[in-house]
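Handout, page 2. Input:
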Amino acid sequence: MPELELLVRQIRLEARNIHSYELVHPRGEELPGFEAGAHIDVQVAEGLVRQYSLSNPPGERHRYVIGVLRDEQGRGGSRALHDSWRVGARVRVSEPRNHFALRPGAGRVLLLAGGIGVTPLKAMAHQLHARGADYELHYCARDEHSVAFADELRAGLAPARLHLHLDGGDPSRGLDIAALLARERREGAQVYYCGPAGFMRACAAAAEVWPAGSVHCEHFKAPDKPAAAADAPAAGGFTLQIASSGLRLQVPAQRSVVEVLREAGIEVPTSCEAGLCATCKTGYLQGEVDHQDCILGPEEQCTHFTPCVSRARSELLVLDL
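Output:
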């Protein structure tokens, strides 16, 4: 994936513990274009890479804008970024890529955002607004101080398109997601959602009755496994075969496919190593995969898997490498 060295032109306090970072080319050149839902890999520090969605209107070529919530309970990426990035700094990012794109031809689009999950949906709202599409953005947050990009959203979107739901920390006082999706279910409609774990579970449950292919989501953290699955031992070992050379490698129960490949001198690009970004997406030609990612669709999973988290159910997995 090509890398860009960009300049941190502006840092803004957008909401409680949320900063936006405006990144531009150091010489004012145009940046690679992107569509709503795209993200960039950000090198927060040496050896520390995180993915952040682009939130600004996709037609803009002079800047990228990301929103970052400082998560004290996270893996350290957001804290490092908040603590170390300064205006004028040079930072390294990937070109945009998109696994959460708007599907063409929708009659109506519902965007459901929880907290910092608004970042990709904000870009979608801008894109849908520019198209004159029929859409609504429902943004759930604790209070006004937790609403990121509030001024920009209110200025850029028609009042009838933007709905803020402030629950004061009690989800039962906020948006009734099940009632909304039951009311909005209709032929040709599409729903997109992104947010924290509880919000994602509520959206997934409410959307179960929607037709296949009409519901789309993006996780910014790997979902918690059910207690039984979390306590279960790791899947047993299996054999990898490299199709081009015939090389066979053993993957023990406690090692990932990526680790075994690296040890054998076969480099697979990685980033999140949590099944969220598809950087490591790899083709396979034979075998049954236990897909543990949160990014590949059912069709992609028939031919590709994420070796950072997914494993084989079969004794042999032949990789298209």
